[in-house]
Amino acid sequence: MRSKRTLLALGAGAAALTLGLASCSGGSTDESNDGGGSSGPEVEVFTWWAAGSEKAGLDALVSVFDSQHPDLEFVNGAVAGGAGSAAKDLLQSRLQAGDAPDTFQAHAGAELQDYIDAAQIQDVSDLYDEFGLTDAFPADLIDRITVDGAIYSVPSNIHRANVVWANPAVLEEAGLDPEAEYDSIDDWIVALDAVQETGKTPLSIATTWTQVHLLETVLLSSLGAEEYNGLWDGSTDWEGSSVTTALEEFELLMSYTNSDRDGLDWPDATQQVIDGQAAFNVMGDWAEAAFAEAGLSSPTDYIYFPVPGTAGVFDFLADSFTLPVGAPNEDGAKAWLETVGSAEGQAAFNKAKGSIPARTDADTSDFSPYQQSAIEAWGSDVIVSSLAHGAATPVATLNKVSDATSKFTTGASDLATFQAELAAAVNG
Predict the structure, then answer these.
(1) DSSP string, 107-133
(2) How far apart are CA 12 and CA 163, in angstroms?
(3) Structural domain includes residue 374
(4) In degrees to the nearest 10, what's the CA dihedral of 58, 56, 378, 296?
(5) Residues 301 and 331 occupy one common structural domain
(6) Which residue of 161, 261, 380, 394 is most buried, as measured by CB atoms within 10 A?
(7) Is 68 in the same domain as 109?
(8) pLDDT per residue of the chain (428 residues) written in tens, 0 to 9
(9) Rounded distance between C-alpha atoms, residue 107 and residue 391, angstroms
(10) Of the candidates 375, 401, 373, which has an alpha carbon nearest to the alpha carbon of residue 386?
(11) Are residues 264 and 328 in the same domain?
(12) Is this model's pTM higher than 0.85 or not?
């Protein structure tokens, strides 16, 4: 039975979390999110949106799904864990055991390659024609998610990774102008030094995936968009001097971070900025929803700007949903994908999630000022793909990068070893 399988999945996820996998604050599945009391065929949707602003976005999407498909019953397969760390492990176990959910969340882009190579997800290109998505999504996005002429997921949003969030009161306490612009990491270091003198945390961060997130933005800042892209197509030498310089900047930035970072997940690091314990946090724009959830408004309570040195570049990732091979309710999964790709679904989901719609025709008139700025940047900036969130590399590569980063930031390796391990992770 579907319900039994879902409970087993959640139980396994909880067990994995107790073994030390990263977890968002709060529990996993909320029974109130099981789909409006419908008694129709079940559709299990597997995500890592289990708490906080992420679950708020999922709830908004489910509301639209219930309205568009009242004959179907949404079954929440959410498993907690920052950036999907726990969910991806459990999902792979289920796929290998022939126990696929009806649909699962994955980052659009290279992250899907492992599932494609293992023949675990289906080509959904025909659904793009059926649902009118080819015309609704920007051509550049379609190009980025097309693999050998096929498309394997439907994006629910567009996120920006290279964003700094800051508490203006903490900056003023340090004698800094909240409206100051930082053109480079070196400029930003001056501000971090000033905050450090006050006793506050200059730069809050959390567990390994957030450190990889910071790493990618430093690489982008130091190398520029062209050389950063070259890291993934082989035209930039991972063992070259320019990467060494970027890693030195990353090492320096890590020295300004909170000592309890490895025991936290992203909401905790963002909360330090919200509470005035830290000045800055580098995080994707899902943090925008966390500030909104806390009842804060910008620029009075928080400010945001591109990571220094990355103005004019949009570090892209997108959450998306797939059609697994062996989905028990394939028609129900297709109905979920229809809602995910719909203008109504994208407007509701992204307003709550802090991201922006992948569709160009969704109603964004009541989106936040940050989201309006992201919409403008998406349409004008140079687009690059995120490392930490699956757009630039397959899961196996990211796992190796994460292992190397964890060793380095916990003092188990030096910079030269770190650089060599990164090169080996990406180059195979």
Answers:
(1) ESSGGGHHHHHTT-B---HHHHHHHTH
(2) 34
(3) no
(4) 180
(5) no
(6) 161
(7) yes
(8) 343 333 333 443 433 333 333 333 333 333 334 444 445 799 999 999 998 888 999 999 999 999 999 999 999 999 987 667 788 889 999 999 999 999 999 999 999 999 999 999 999 999 999 999 999 999 989 999 999 999 999 999 999 999 999 999 999 999 999 999 999 999 999 999 999 999 999 999 999 999 999 999 999 999 999 999 999 999 999 999 999 999 999 999 999 999 999 999 999 999 999 999 999 999 999 999 999 999 999 999 999 999 999 999 999 999 999 999 999 999 999 999 999 999 999 999 999 999 999 999 999 999 999 999 999 999 999 999 999 999 999 989 999 999 999 999 999 999 999 999 999 999 98
(9) 7
(10) 401
(11) no
(12) yes
Residues 395, 417 share a domain: yes
Tokens of 179: 């409206």
For the record, the structure tokens of 286 come out as 């899902």
CA gyration radius, the chain: 21
Backbone angles phi, psi at 144, to 5 degrees: -70, -25
Rounded Cα distance between 53 and 135, Å, is: 30
Q: Whole domain around residue 291: which residue ranges? A: 160-315+391-427
How are beta strands 150-151 and 201-204 bridged, if at all?
A: unpaired
DSSP state of 385: E
CATH code of the domain covering residue 251:
3.40.190.10
204 and 309 belong to one structural domain: yes
> How many domains, the chain?
2
104: which strand partners? 46
Q: Give yes or no: residues 177 and 305 share one domain.
A: yes
Query: H or E segment at 261?
Result: none
* C-alpha span between 281 and 122 (Å, rounded): 38
Rounded CA gap, 277 and 289, in Å?
19
In a domain, 381, yes or no: no
What's the rounded Cα separation, in Å, for the pair 348 and 341? 11
Question: What's the CA gap between 24 and 246, in Å, rounded?
Answer: 29
Are 57 and 78 in contact by the 8 Å Cβ rule? The answer is: no
Gap between the Cα atoms of 174 and 6, Å rounded? 50
